[in-house]
Amino acid sequence: MNTLKVLVVDDEPGIRSGIERILRNYTVGFPFMAEDFNFRIYEAETGEIGLELIESENPDIVLLDNKLPGIQGIEVLEKINKKKLDTAVMMITSYASLDIAVKATNFGAFNFVPKPFTPQELKSSIESITKHLFLKRMTKEMNKEGKQIRFQFLSVLSHELKSPLNAIEGYLKIMQDKQVGDNLEHYMAMIDRSLIRIKGMRGLIMDMLDLTKLESGKKNREIKSVDLHEIATTAIHTVEPLAIQQNVAINFNAEENICIPADADELEIILNNLLSNAVKYNKNGGHVDLNICQKTDKVVIKVKDNGIGISQENISKLFTEFTRIKTEQTRDISGSGLGLSITKKMIDLYNGQIDVQSQPDEGTEFTVSLPV
Ligand SMILES: Nc1ncnc2c1ncn2[C@@H]1O[C@H](COP(=O)(O)OP(=O)(O)O)[C@@H](O)[C@H]1O
Ligand SMILES: [Mg+2]
Predict the structure, then answer these.
(1) Of the bound ligands, which one is closest to the alpha carbon of residue 366?
(2) What is the pLDDT of residue 169?
(3) Closest to 301 (Cα-Cα) out of 236, 211, 219
(4) Whose CA is nearest to atom 4 of ligand 1?
(5) Which of 205, 248, 281, 321 to mutate to test the pocket of ligand 1 (most atoms within 8 A of CB)?
(6) Full pLDDT tens readout for the chain, 372 residues
(7) Spatial distance between the Cα atoms of 358 and 323, rounded to a whole number of angstroms
(8) CB atoms within 10 A of CB 66
(9) Would you kindly state where each structural domain of the chain is located, as residue ranges?
(10) Residues near ligand 1 with C-beta < 6 Å?
(11) How far is the CA of 275 from the centre of ligand 2 (A)?
(12) What is the position in ligand 1's atom list of the atom closest to the CA of 305?
């Protein structure tokens, strides 16, 4: 239960105690709120006392009479407005002139409730104020969170691009100054390393594009019956050159004609990522087993390797953007740290699931299930 503080500023004791009685056991709930709201009432018989209570108690809602003995309600409202408080003010007044009504609206009053009002009228006004406050605060919170995540994303991204750029710049300066002489042969290693860094940056940019398309919902999806055997064969062909270089064998085991409704490109991205990881984070002479089997209600894809493995504490971070596990074994392996987060998001599109089992130094198994 959430409690909202309600301050009643009115010189008539009957009104104050009446409101207290009506709202004492009243609660407001909406399907989209996790918890219901109830109300704690504070009372002030003048505008001056009202302002003190606003200062000390920070009420969420103020029910404000205009005709008060000292300063008028409209002046209290003006002060609340100037302080930019996160408070919703409802004017309760017997007869409001147009002039007061216009001013009150200008000073951001939420609404007017003419006196006398029935308990039901008060409750429905309180209900709409509560919903308004909840949504306003929720929106603010979400905007703040969104900005925070975007900021984190951009700072990691710029960091990831800075180090290869610095490296390439360094090599180019060495060449510009001809630091190791006139023979172009002496620069070959630097050129090779620069090209590797450029390849890394290109990979990062390609992953970023996949991610942006996914996140913006702008990716054109073409869902039709696709043969997983065929897609897997293509994905294996894609990683084969790397596997040969690393001396890693790929074993493939699947029935032919496992057809599911899906976007072929998305399935290929999922398989490419899992297979390339299984090869990249493997050992010389290691192997990768790709198994695909059809169950009654789902297709299960298993990618198993006997590579370097992942420690238990790192497993939970794997699907977060830019996660790269830094160890002696991964030092020279390049990557963007985006592959698995993209993979996870793609699998989510199918309401599927991805699980990881791993033992350091023994190997890793990723299991993807896609409901059919
Ligand atoms: N099969 C695997 N075996 C061991 N570590 C893995 C495996 N797959 C992923 N990882 C670890 O998870 C990290 C994140 O993977 P990924 O998101 O694909 O990014 P990238 O491969 O670009 O670094 C990798 O950097 C690696 O440390
Ligand atoms: Mg990867």
Answers:
(1) 1
(2) 94
(3) 236
(4) 309
(5) 281
(6) 899 999 999 999 999 999 999 999 999 987 777 789 999 999 999 999 999 999 999 999 999 998 999 999 999 999 999 998 889 999 988 766 778 888 888 898 998 888 889 999 999 999 999 988 988 888 888 888 777 777 777 777 787 788 789 889 999 999 999 999 999 999 999 999 999 889 888 988 888 888 777 777 766 788 999 999 999 999 999 899 889 999 999 999 998 889 999 999 899 999 999 999 999 999 999 999 999 999 999 999 999 999 999 999 999 999 998 889 999 999 888 888 889 998 998 999 999 999 999 999 999 999 999 998
(7) 17
(8) 26
(9) 2-143, 222-371
(10) 273, 277-278, 281, 305, 307-310, 318, 323-325, 330, 335-340, 364
(11) 9
(12) 1
Tokens encoding 64: 């404000």
The helix (run of H) or strand (run of E) holding residue 231 is: helix 228-246
Main-chain phi, psi angles of 190, to 5 degrees:
-70, -40
Q: Which CATH superfamily is 222-371 part of? A: Histidine kinase-like ATPase, C-terminal domain (3.30.565.10)
CATH tag, 2-143: 3.40.50.2300
**Confidence at residue 96, expressed as pLDDT on a 0 to 100 scale:** 65
Give the number of whichever ligand sits closest to the CA of residue 276.
2
- Residue 278 tokens read as 């299984």
Give residues whose Cβ lies within 5 Å of ion ligand 2. Answer: 277, 335, 339
Chain position carrying tokens 């059919």: 372
Minimum-distance ligand to the CA of 307?
A: 1
Site to probe by mutation for ligand 1, drawn from 318, 321, 356 as the one with most ligand atoms within 8 Å of Cβ, is 318
Shortest CA distance to 245 belongs to which of 289, 276, 204?
Answer: 276
Task: Report CA(63)–ligand 1 centroid distance (Å).
Answer: 58
Distance in Å, CA 273 to ligand 2 centroid: 5
Q: What integer pLDDT is reported at residue 187 of this predicted model?
A: 95
Query: Residue 163 and residue 297: Cα distance in Å, rounded?
Result: 46
CB 304 within 8 Å of CB 363: yes
